[in-house]
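To fix ideas, we close by showing one paired sequence and structure record:
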Amino acid sequence: MRKFHHYIAIEQLSFHMKSTRCFFIIVLMALAKIGLAQVREVSISYDGVHGYDSALGQVLEWSSLKEEPRVRSSDKPPEGLRLRWLGTSGFELGDNKTTILIDPFVSRPSISNPLAPLIIDTTAVDELILKPMGDRNVDAILVSHAHADHVMDVPLVLSRSTTTDHSPLLVGDPNTVALVESYHLSAKTRLLAFDDGVVHYLIGQFGDFTVEAVRSLHPQYDFLPWRGPEGEIEGHPPFTGFDYLSYRNIAIAYIISYRGLKFVFCDGAILQ
C-alpha cells in the first residue's frame, strides 16, 4: 500500500510539472502574439523596377515604427550636386567634376542554384552604372562589406574605370581588397583596406567631397541573431554566393561632407 501511494504521489508530481510547462508555453505564445501584433508589416513593391523579378517573392519590411521618421532635408542643395540610386544599397554621388560610387551592384544573378557561380552582368553594369555617367571619371568606389549584393560588380566597375591616365581609389574591408586582387586587375589599381581595428579614418578629399570611414556592424536579419555569411575570402573567380563573406561581421559606414552638407551611408549600426 505504501508503494502504491508513492506511485500516486509521483504521478501527481509529474502531472503538476506537465501542467506548469503547458502554462509557460501558453504564456510565451501569448507574449509572442502580442509582440508580433505590435510589429507593422509593410509590403514593398518593385513592380516596374529594372532588374527585380516579382517571381522571386514578396519583400517585407518589419518595423515597430508607428509612422515614417521625419528627416530634415536641405532647403536648397548646392547647384550641380547629383545623387543617383543604383538599386539595393548602391548610390552614385557627385557633381560636375567628381563622382563617387557606393556599393555599386546592378547584376541580378539567379538564385535557383546556390552552388552555381555568380556571373557579373556586364551589360547591366555598362548600361545602368557607367553609361549614364557619360565622360565623367569615377574618383572613388566605397564598399561597405564583401557580400555579393554589395561587391559583386565592383571588379568590373573598377576595371572599366581604370585607364592609363586615371584610376579610382577603392575603399573596403580586407575581404573586398582580397576579392578585387583575385581578379588580377591593372597594376594601376589603388586599394585601401579598412581594418576592423580602426574605428574612424579620414580617407581623403575628392574634389569638394571629404570622405570618412567609420566602423559599423552588419545588421541582423529581422529576429535572427545572425549577420550573414562571415569569414575570410579565399580563392579565385568565379565565386558562388557562399564565397562572398563579410569580414568579422564588420560593415563600413561612410560619412561624406560636401559644401556644408553631410551624407551618411550606413548598412548597420555605427560602433563608437
